[in-house]
Write a structure and sequence with these properties.
The protein is mostly beta strands. The protein is 12% helix and 42% strand. It has 3 domains: 17-130, Carboxypeptidase-like, regulatory domain (Immunoglobulin-like, Sandwich); 133-275, no CATH class; 289-422.
Length: 423
């Protein structure tokens, strides 16, 4: 399929997508009932933040065989009465888009079961709850006076982490994480340089205090709706120099108006210091040799400035490789990537495309009416214009994630990713 044809098809699809009924839905008989369906949410008490549910995605399924019955792209499109064959069903509703491991906003999801009886109006309300937890990081004034740069990573033990750096400043946004299953401890890694040039590195483990009255269920595991706040302060040694940091952490739950202290435990590395592997930002060559500066995740429209997608890459030892992989929640986008791979030599975004020296990329962007320069091996700086994809993406609704891996001439690597949401 040619790209121009794909773009035209994407435009038609975007204009027509609203609600859909499964014409092949199996029905044992013609007996009918009806239902009145609404979507609500459980608001985390501590945030006092309102949620607009009118744009939530809604889908109805037959319960026994999970057969899809109908979908509504927005809850606002649900009619006052839905006529259906009698039987048992369940309905799912969630925030637009797909739940990602790391997000800049909360994601709500819910399920409700109901039964359709003949000549009866069944009422169903899907109550959506937060599927991810939030992290807010606060810096004391003496922290900002003590440190010239820092990197903070928050992880639940999976490969993904929320990362803040000194380039983000101290007024950083709240970030959201989908916790892995049965996670009872979170890890905070801190690496920073004081204004005096001293390097500080700490690792802390966070756990919930086990007081049953603090929970809506008796569990030690982190779950959606948990709101965690970290307060960072420097620690002075007896000689007056900054020797470490201290973290005060508290947590609140979606149905609580109070916040509770969390256990913060220092983690001492098992291996001797001289044998410890280098970590991102620890001052070693692997960290300082490569800079990969990706934009924040964003929602893209036809009016979005393409320059907002510029990704800045710098490698002191010279760039060896830049691999770009694209994943998407859109079937049309997945099809487009497959078509591109078939038409342009050296391009396969599903498995990773090499940018360095790739003439096929130049040809692709020429077809899209865009210009692109690709770096040569050994170049020390390069700007990869993800914004050049905007003209293709804006007709394909969904979440499109660009995953980049940069390798320098000495074999050091650095990874990063950016998610573009098209509504």
């Amino acid at each position: 399929m040619k790209i121009s044809k794909l773009l035209m098809m994407g435009t038609v699809a975007a204009l027509s997508l609203s609600s859909c009924m499964n014409e092949d839905f199996p029905s044992a008989n013609s007996r009918k009932g009806s239902m009145s369906l609404s979507v609500d949410y459980l608001k985390p008490t501590i945030t006092r933040a309102g949620v607009e549910t009118s744009d939530f995605y809604v889908a109805i399924y037959e319960a026994e065989d999970n057969d899809w019955y109908c979908t509504y792209e927005k809850a606002s499109l649900i009619p006052n009465k839905i006529t259906m064959p009698i039987g048992a069903y369940y309905v799912k509703a969630h925030t637009p888009g797909t739940l990602q491991k790391i997000m800049e906003s909360p994601y709500y999801a819910g399920v409700d079961e109901f039964e359709i009886l003949e000549n009866v109006i069944t009422k169903s309300t899907v109550v959506c709850r937060m599927a991810n937890g939030s992290f807010t990081v606060k810096f004391s004034s003496d922290f900002t006076q003590a440190f010239s740069d820092w990197t903070i990573s928050l992880t639940d033990g999976s490969e993904s982490a929320i990362i803040y750096t000194s380039q983000d400043g101290t007024n950083v946004p709240t970030m959201y994480m989908q916790f892995a299953e049965a996670v009872s401890a979170l890890t905070v890694n801190f690496i920073g340089t004081t204004v005096d040039g001293n390097r500080i590195s700490t690792t802390n483990k966070l756990t919930k205090k086990q007081a049953s009255e603090q929970y809506d269920s008796d569990t030690e595991y982190f779950s959606g709706g948990d709101a965690i706040v970290l307060n960072l302060r420097p620690v002075e040694s007896t000689d007056g120099n900054i020797s470490s940091i201290t973290i005060n952490a508290n947590i609140s739950f979606e149905e609580s108006e109070e916040s509770f202290d969390m256990e913060v435990e220092d983690v001492i590395p098992d291996t001797p210091e001289e044998e410890q592997p280098e970590q991102p930002g620890d001052g070693g060559e692997a960290s300082n040799a490569i800079t990969l500066q990706l934009p924040q995740n964003m929602t893209v429209t036809k009016d979005t400035d393409p320059s907002l997608g510029d990704t800045h890459i710098k490698a002191d030892n010279g760039i060896k490789s830049i691999i770009v992989k694209i994943t998407s929640t859109s079937e049309d986008m997945s099809g487009a990537l497959a078509d591109i791979a078939g038409e342009y030599e050296g391009i396969d975004f599903d498995n990773g495309t090499e940018v360095v020296g790739n003439q096929g990329l130049v040809d692709l962007f020429t077809t899209l009416g865009q210009s692109l320069n690709v770096p040569a091996e050994g170049d020390k700086e390069y700007v990869f214009p993800i914004g050049n994809f905007f003209s293709l993406l804006t007709v394909l609704s969904g979440d499109h994630t660009f995953i980049m891996t940069v390798t320098d001439m000495n074999g050091n690597t650095k990874d990063g990713q950016l998610t573009l949401t098209i509504e």
